[in-house]
Design brief:
Blueprint: E1 4-10, H1 15-18, H2 32-44, E2 50-55, H3 59-72, E3 76-78, H4 95-101, H5 103-110, H6 125-140, E4 147-152, H7 154-165, E5 182-188, E6 191-199
Parallel strand pairs: 1-4, 2-3, 2-4
Antiparallel strand pairs: 1-5, 5-6
Helix pairs in contact: 2-3, 4-5, 6-7
Length: 213
């Protein structure tokens, strides 16, 4: 079976990225800089032979994906499996607010305890990894020998990186997840493999790096 080439892109910047406020499943739109980043990544991929673009249906990812689809001419499809990790009660809060109000919960989050679930409807890292792995496999298997783009969120991109590099869920993150960076991977039935990560050459200013939005 031929491999599927994947370009994975995190959505453009939002006002809540700037404020270090947890977005999770809340449907926050791009700020002005985020719209600019979306146009830039679209232009950077305009000459790539993209077969299809799949995106989280949350608007910050969807609007980023629209610019890529317009630039490449590839069809755009919503994919709920690419939505951000659910953070439950923590959504809408800053990192500092969470640490002050729920220190024990915040400690489990910071230590990346795989089984820990954010209260009131959140997802554990185990569930996120399972969801992302299933989604990527399902989509990539449709496109052997082709190039596709996946537009998602920081938590999803983190899971993809760990799957491709066989990193443990609780391993400290030593890689960047900038908004609108270009990340290249290969998929085969054996799994994901890394080609290149965090290319921001198409962005004229430093992309903001967040843990998960």
């Amino acid at each position: 079976m031929e491999v599927t080439r994947i370009i994975a892109v995190r959505h453009g910047e939002t006002a809540w990225n700037v404020d270090a406020r947890i977005q999770g499943r809340l449907d926050i739109g791009l700020n002005d800089h985020g719209h600019w980043q979306a146009r830039q990544v679209g232009q950077a991929l305009a000459t790539e032979p993209v077969t299809a673009v799949y995106a989280s249906d949350l608007q910050r990812a969807w609007h980023t994906a629209q610019r890529i689809a317009e630039a490449t001419g590839a069809p755009l499809q919503p994919e709920p499996g690419l939505r951000e990790r659910g953070f439950g009660l923590f959504e809408g809060k800053t990192f500092q607010e969470i640490e002050q109000a729920w220190p024990e919960q915040a400690s489990q989050w910071r230590r990346r305890v795989p089984e820990w679930v954010p209260p009131e409807g959140g997802e554990s890292l185990l569930l996120v990894r399972e969801r992302v792995a299933e989604t990527v496999q399902r989509i990539a298997a449709r496109h052997p020998g082709e190039l596709i783009v996946l537009v998602a969120h920081g938590g999803v991109l983190d899971a993809i990186y760990r799957l491709a590099t066989r990193q443990a869920l609780d391993a400290p993150r030593t890689w960047k997840l900038p908004n609108a960076a270009i990340n290249r991977l290969l998929w085969s039935p054996e799994g994901l493999a890394m080609v290149g990560w965090s290319d921001t050459g198409h962005l004229e200013v430093t992309a903001r790096d967040e843990g998960s939005t």
